[in-house]
């Protein structure tokens, strides 16, 4: 099996849909458990918030690499299409919702993050939006990764080698940029995100056929071993004490074993019809979930802390165990409902760049 040099064949792969759905659930869980866990479960009444944050940090080596690897695998055919066929779906349809929803987040999220300084918070959000450091940063970098893959499509192995070299150089590059006064810290951190995650997108693009073939030949035991290895390496990394180089080696090992576990186990569980249908259904709504869920979490955090329900559940075992999963589920369901409403009302400009439809009778066009 060789690296990709030509478009992939038609047809959906059920376990890829499932893995894509898993990646969005992990992102939402992270934003609830790590981003809001200590607010929903305050430290003065329970240690559960810290435990949820720790769990999500353990998943960090696999969460975004999984998302980007799947994105690269799903971009193979588009990379080989003519420019006119990809400018809108692969560039504009990401850039527009990124800017639109970043603006919406900026004008609403101050109620959670800076209730006493909304103007200052909005200005800060402008800066993080321009440097891909806001809540929707991964949508901003997808077009960049796509363009990189397209530029290197004639030499895929070389492209992957360069991406791997950039990954290795990401940490010293960030340190160097942070030492240069002329480079804003946000820009350095935004560049760091691109350099450490590009390799997983490129790997998904270049190695798509190999990943699919090996995943579908693997046995359940292989997935369980990979999951066990991921857990062991992650725990070892948390212990620390091995130095910077050891930490980065363990990070790469955790990512690779975590990706292997997710892919192999997905090929097994997707044989259950309901799981396959659920993965396909949720996987086709990932963009809406990515865009809407941060706003839902903000509302939940602002409301819950001062609500009668929040006071009643404060410090309870029920809240410790179920509150983070419940808010995660709520965010996903509200986002899915938003997706359905937008689809039924024809509000295409909410999740994609507005299109102009030409009227056949007059030649005029209307904005959608």
Automatic annotation (TrEMBL):
It is a multi-pass membrane protein. Pfam families: Acyl_transf_3 (PF01757). One of its GO terms (biological process) is enterobacterial common antigen biosynthetic process. One of its GO terms (molecular function) is O-acetyltransferase activity. One of its GO terms (cellular component) is plasma membrane. The chain crosses the membrane at residues 21-41, 61-79, 91-113, 133-151, 158-178, 190-207, 219-237, 249-266, 287-306, 326-353. InterPro entries: Acyl_transf_3_dom. The keyword Transmembrane helix applies. The keyword Phosphoprotein does not apply. Belongs to the acyltransferase 3 family. This is Predicted membrane protein. It comes from Brachybacterium faecium (strain ATCC 43885 / DSM 4810 / JCM 11609 / LMG 19847 / NBRC 14762 / NCIMB 9860 / 6-10).
